[in-house]
Amino acid sequence: MALSQGWVKRYFKAFCKGFFVAVPVAVTFLDRVACVARVEGASMQPSLNPGGSQSSDVVLLNHWKVRNFEVQRGDIVSLVSPKNPEQKIIKRVIALEGDIVKTMGHKNRYVKVPRGHIWVEGDHHGHSFDSNSFGPVSLGLLHGHATHILWPPERWQKLESVLPPERLPIQSEEDCLHGSP
């Protein structure tokens, strides 16, 4: 009897040691490196959730890449909603700070993205609550960079950072630095 109790005690002690090491490591990883998230809604169709309400894509969000606000035009990013801090939204980066963007339904036809901000839009313009509704978004609201679709299995793929040609900035900061009109 004492032999079996000793085994249980050793097992419990080893389990506790492993648990108290694994949990902080897992929490740190999910908070700082990457996590998975389910995408809901039609705002990013056809890139995400092409099947509509029948299915939801699950994506890998890379927190590491956005920690220094390293985003490019065309990246799909997760961010805290500027209108509801309890909600996260997923959109495509259309313009970076200094870019002049032609808006689609914003109160101003053209907007120069201020320093420390980005312009984000959903791929499905008629069904997206994005910068055309709330304006440029502070880089501080970035949560993660969507890099891969993980679910459903038949849609597993790397997400490319592609900016639709019709959404190129009218003038970018690089154009100004290199003397282009």
Report on the structure:
The chain has 4 helices and 10 strands. Helices cover 25% and strands 27% of the residues. The protein is elongated and about 75 Å long. The mean pLDDT is 84. Strands 1, 2, 3, 4, 7, 8, 9 and 10 form an 8-stranded antiparallel β-sheet that branches. By secondary structure, it is of the alpha+beta class. It is an enzyme of class 3 (hydrolase). Keywords: Hydrolase, Membrane, Mitochondrion, Mitochondrion inner membrane, Protease, Transmembrane, Transmembrane helix. Its EC number is 3.4.21.-.
Largest sheet: 8 strands, antiparallel
Shape: elongated
| Helix run count | 4
Structural class: alpha+beta
**Element string (H = helix, E = strand):** HEEHEEEEEHEEEH
Residue windows where pLDDT falls under 50 for at least 5 positions:
none
- Tell me the helix content: 10-25%
Estimate the strand proportion: 25-35%
Tally the beta strands.
10
What gyration radius follows from the Cα positions, in whole Å? Answer: 21 Å
Average per-residue pLDDT, rounded, comes to 84
Gap between N and C termini? 86 Å
Task: Write out key terms for the chains shown.
181 residues; alpha+beta; 8-stranded antiparallel sheet; 4 helices; elongated; mitochondrion; LexA/Signal_pep-like_sf; mitochondrion inner membrane; membrane; EC 3.4.21.-
Condensed summary:
With 181 residues, the protein is an alpha+beta fold. It has 4 helices and 10 strands, in the order H-E-E-H-E-E-E-E-E-H-E-E-E-H.
